[in-house]
Amino acid sequence: MFVKAEKLSKIYRIGKNEIRALNEVSFELERGKIYTVIGPSGSGKTTLFNILGGLDRAEEGRIFVDGKEITAMDQKKLSDYRRDYVGFVFQFYNLINGLTVYENVLSSAALSKNPLDVDMVLEMMDVYSEKNKFPFELSGGQQQRVAIARAVVKNPAMILCDEPTGALDYESSKLVLKLLEDVNKRFGTTILIITHNLAISKMADATLRLRSGRLVEFSENPQKISAQEVSW
Amino acid sequence: MLIKKIPLRVMKREFLQFFSIIMLVAIASMTYTLFAVSMEDIDVNYKMFIKDYVQEDGYFITSQNIDEKLLKEKFGVELEERLFYEVQENGITLRIFSISDRINKPYIEAGKKPQDGEVLLDPSFFKAHQYHTNDSITILNKKFTVSGIGYLPDYIYIIKNDQDILPDPKHFGVVLMTENDMKKLFPALPVHYYSYKGRLNNIEDFKSFINSNWHLLKFVEKSENPRIIYTEMKLENAKRMTLPLSLFIILVSSFILFIVMRRIINTMHAEIGTLYSMGYTQKDVFRVFMRFPLYIWLTGSILGILLGYFEAYPLSEFYRSYFTLPKLKNVLPWQHIFVALALPAVFIFISGYLALKNFFKLTIVQMLHGVDEIKFGKLPDIKFFDRFEFQTKIMLKYGYRHFARELVLAVGIIFSTILMMYGMTAKDSIVVAIERTYEKNFKYEYLYLLNSVSTHPEIKLTNQAEPYNVMSFDIEGRKLSIMIYGIKKDSQMIKLYDNKGNEIPISNKLVISRPLANKLGLKEGDKIHIKSKFTDKKYTLKVYKIADLPVGNSGYMDLESFNKIFGYSREEYIGIFSKEKLSLSNNLIFESYSKSELVNTIKASAGDLSKTIEVMALVAAILALLIVYVLSTLTVNENKKNIGILKMLGYREGSIFKMMLGFNNFSFLAGFIIGVPLSKITMDSLMNAATKDIDFAMMLDVSTKSIFSTFAVLFFVFVVSRFLVRRKMAKVMPVEILREQVD
User: Fold this and answer.
1) In this protein, which residues make up the domain named ABC transporter (chain A) (predicted)?
2) Could you say which of B5, B281, B363 has the minimum Cβ distance to residue A56?
3) A 183-222 residues with CB < 8 A to B
């Protein structure tokens, strides 16, 4: 098993109130598959994304990635984990405005032990012609493709996407999903997409449904469709 | 590391903001380098000059020829007589000395040591009259060849009279010639002038011994000689200004950098969070962001050092000609250049570090979602503001929210006011001192100091002239002296007034000058303990009144009482105040000068201060401009969204400007209002510290004209910077904000 989560819990304390963002969540993910995480706002999707990505810590429970317990890692090891295992794609792209498209992708490749060719990835994402532009000169769809390129170029074992189509129009969203599917197929990367959009679940191998911090459903999808066929 | 490119790109994008901070750092480094390097140059050359050319420890003038051997053996000091005579021709006074071999040796810069028939001229007189080597000069109808320029270690600040404020090379010069020529030109020299070098265990014994044997006319220790001590005082003054001035500018720029960096970090929170998520460590990100202070420091301080270093040499030359100091050695003070480089580094890096420190306490998730920005974006809630109408309420809230910024703006204006007022006051005070002292208080036209205290039966005084007596005293417990004058009871030549403008009658009671009273902390009715410089005799006198004289450590009483108290006969006197020129024999006169000549030349010299004032005004104006511009731009940048929304709601630009930046007007006014009295206090304390142990005192007066001029310049600069900021605000379009919000 590539990812194994055991009774993960995360509690936020605001004054005297406690909010249990994750409540004893357990699941297993296989290498090279696409997963979606769905659920209403406040269900714990982003918290799960943060913990799985080594951006935040769980209060209770354990999580193993490729046999390593990331919940036991110190900050330095977590940093190495993010560097070697995970690529991130955010809803609002989070590109570095002070760097060009090429440099944004290169800044990620530079951290990897086994990076992919930057030009090749840019071509794959269809943003090669924009390589010398700065992020603010691109459309939202283009920026998200650059963000995917930045995640992919490290050649990570897993890409975590937080609402990757949330800020995009329909056509751009479809293109982004197609690219994620291509990456999964071509490099065998495990992809986990957090989304409000139920239609996206149809292209996933399995879906985790969260509600009020609990995993209420883990459903495999034997009738998986391609990203091209997804519509809403 | 590729991400190290980020800071430079951000700086390019926010060019004017960073350029302004860089300029502030550059001004700070430049100020320090400029003053420190030029002062070091002057200081090193000064010390070398007085050591190598044997500056005297003092000089004295007697009416009889002394027994040098006896004096040397008894007191163990080196002595050298210099022949001395003063010639007044065509409104020019030439003080002529023979060339000394052991003490006060001349440094010859151009030309050669004069032989018979040749003279050396002091550099200022040489330049002022555009002489060249081998030109001829006529002294008492005898032609001499100018053999070159000579610097004297005891005539560094070349003033004619001890009480003069500024040198006047157009009307006064020092001439050196051979002893032979001196004797030929002046067969009967009225006095004997001696320089001494060496430590005296008991100076009072030394003076008494000379006085009792050869009749001492004048005794001046080095520490009382304004021609020497003014240089040290002015150097010390300039040194005292250097560090606080630079430190202040560095502190202001560091604070602004702190605010700017916090803003940048706030706007880049998600990008920094992303860098972490990609696997960059805190160390990596810290190194990248510390490049902001690094670039600002490097560019600003190197630019400042270069500007300061190259400007330091013209400034050194200016000081050199002002003090009449030769250049004996090229000085490259590495230690000051290091300080100019290191000083801004300390403050700028601390400010950069502090700006980053809090941000790094956030978790990556907080960085990604910008918790920090939400925290900083909340307006403080003060019920008091609710009393005002909406726009004023928002303006007050912005002022309160950005209190630290408003404070820096006010402090910046205070500082600019002080800087500008300092230059203007220096000029004002000299003009006031001259006008008041020589036009309001001193009614005579000519002053004659005679060779001896006597009843002078050979001199017939008309009603246009008055006799006076004068003695110099040490003030006990202080390294200060006072000149007490005995003048006619109903004197028409000297008029003294109190601070209310009422005339103080001259009586048997002592009246002292206000600068001296201030320096000694004396009030009317207090006692002053003094000791005669010549006889060592001690006196205690009660201060009857304090006269509103702007310059001088002086005291006055009527001549009769003066003579009685200090042991002279009733009719004796040493000098004459006169409304008309007297035809006295040269053998009788020790010193003389005309008041109108002095007033005019000093007023003209005060005009030379205009250049200094212009430079100070320019620096003050640039400082004010940069500070107001950077702080206001920051507010606009931070509030682009709010500006867009307010515009969208239909608010006019003027109203938005008032709401966001209206509080600046109060800060500006407060800064100026506080700055005016503070500049007076600062200057008074600077003057007191500088003149603490020397016989010089001057009241610093700030004229209404100077206050208005300073306000006009600073207000103009304020309006210009506001105009620039307003243009920036005009460029914020509501549609851009909406687009930003969609993204």
Assistant:
1) 3-232
2) B363
3) none
Using CA atoms of B507, B508, B509, B512 in order, give the dihedral in degrees to the nearest 10. Answer: 70
Which residues contact residue B648 at a Cβ distance below 8 angstroms, ignoring those fewer than 6 apart? Answer: B734, B737, B738
User: Is A76's Cβ below 8 Å from some Cβ in B?
Assistant: yes
Which of B2, B270, B281 minimises the CB distance to A94?
B270
3-state secondary structure of B165: coil
User: How confident is the prediction along chain A (232 residues), in pLDDT tens digits per residue?
Assistant: 899 999 999 998 877 788 889 999 999 999 999 999 999 988 999 999 999 999 888 999 999 999 999 999 988 898 889 989 999 998 888 888 888 999 999 989 988 888 999 999 999 999 999 999 999 899 989 999 999 999 999 999 999 999 999 888 898 899 999 999 999 999 999 999 999 899 999 999 999 999 999 999 999 999 999 999 999 8
User: Which residues from A are below 8 Å from B363, CB to CB?
Assistant: 55-56
Backbone angles phi, psi at B734, to 5 degrees: -55, -35
CB contact under 8 A, B5 and A99: yes
B478: helix, coil or strand? coil
* Structure tokens belonging to residue B381: 């809630």
**B283 interface with A at CB cutoff 8 Å:** no
B365 and chain A in contact, CB less than 8 A: yes
* CA quadruple A69, A71, A72, A77: dihedral, nearest 10: 80
How many whole angstroms separate alpha carbon B248 and alpha carbon B254? Answer: 10
* pTM (two decimals): 0.69
CATH code: domain of residue A171: 3.40.50.300
Distance CA B48, CA B56 (A): 14
Asked, for residue A227, whether it belongs to a domain, the answer is no
Say which of A55, A92, A140 has its CB closest to residue B277: A55
Q: How many domains does chain A have?
A: 1
Q: Where are the beta strands (DSSP E) in chain A?
A: 3-14, 17-29, 34-38, 60-65, 68-69, 86-89, 158-162, 190-194, 206-211, 214-220
* DSSP single-letter state for residue A229: G
Q: Which residue has the tokens 């002002």?
A: B322
Sequence-ordered list of residues with C-beta below 8 angstroms from that of A68, at least 6 positions apart, any chain:
A81
Distance CA B389, CA B397 (A): 12
Global ipTM: 0.79
**For B277, which of A82, A84, A103 is closest by C-beta distance?**
A82
- Residue A108 within any structural domain of the chain: yes
Residue A165 lies in a domain: yes
**DSSP character for A168?**
S
- Give the other-Cβ count within 10 Å of B380's Cβ: 9
Structural domain that includes position A109: 1-220
For the stretch B678-725, pLDDT in tens is 888 877 776 666 555 545 555 666 778 888 988 999 999 999 999 989
Residue A228 placed within a domain: no
